User: What shape does this take?
Amino acid sequence: MIRAILAAALMAAPALAQAPAAAVATGTREDPPGRYSLPVGVFDGTAVPLRAVQGVRRLAAWRRPLDGQASVAGVFEGLRAEAAAGGGRILFDCATEDCGGFDFRRALELLPPPEMYLDLAEFHAFAVETGSGAETGLRLVLVSRTGSDVVWQESVIRPEPVAPRPVAVPAQVPAEPGAGAPAPVADIAQALDGKGMAVLDGLDFATGSADLPEPVPASVSQLAAWMTAHPRARATVVGHSDASGDAAANQALSRQRAESVRRYLVERLGLAGARLEAAGVGALAPRASNATPEGRRLNRRVEVVIAAE
Assistant: This one.
C-alpha cells in the first residue's frame, strides 16, 4: 500500500522524494489550480521571503519511528542529499532558530494533526527549485518530530496555466448586535495583503480564559470579509498566551482561544470550516514584555496567518 501511495506521488509530482525505509504515509492533499507561495529563504528579521508560482500544489506527509536508526537531522540530510543528487537547485536550508523559529512557521501551510506536526524546538527545512523556464516549480521539505516519531512534509508546486477568474468585490460582514458599525475592512485587509498575517486586535482574553470578549471586536468581521473576498485563501488562526503559569497549560489554552475564534468565524459568520485551521503556541512568541500587566494583556492574543490563495 505504501509503495502504491509513493508511486502515485511520484507520478503526480516528480520532485517528491522517495520516503526513507520504515516510513508511513500519513496524509496528502491536492489543491486546485491557483497561485501558491513557498519560502525561498529564512526569516530575515522582518519577513520570510516567498515566491509565488501559478499552478497546482500537492502536500504530502510521512512519519517513521524516532530511534537509533532515525533522527530529525538524519532524515533531513537524507532528503536534502537526494534532492541535490536529483538535480534540484537548493535555495536554502536551515534548522529551527536559524530558520526563524515561529516567524518562519507562520509562512508555512501544514497538513493538520495527526497528519503532520511541527515541534518549534526542533525542525529543519530546505527549499528546491525544480525545472526551468516556464516549467520552473518549487518544493519545500520540512522535517520535525513528535515524542516518538520523525515527521516530515513535502510541499510541491508544479506550474500549470490558470484561467483568470473574476475579481471578487469585498463584502461587508455585519457586526453582531450591540457591536456598532463594522470597522473599515481596509485595516485587516492591508495587513493580510501586505504581510500575509494580522493580529486580531480587540480580542482581549481574560487570564486563563478562552471565552471571546463581548462584543466580538470588528477585527474578526474584517477577517471574514477579507476571506469572503478571497475565496481560495486558507488561514491558520494562531492563539497566544502570556507567560503566567504552566507552559503546557498555556499552549493548550492558546489553542482553545484560536478554536473559539475559528468556531465563531464558521458558525456565526459563515466561513467554510475547511478553510480554517486552529493552532496554539502558548507563550513562545510574545509581542510585549510579560513583566507588566499591560504586556501580558497584549500577549493574550490571536493572529491569523494566510496559508495560500
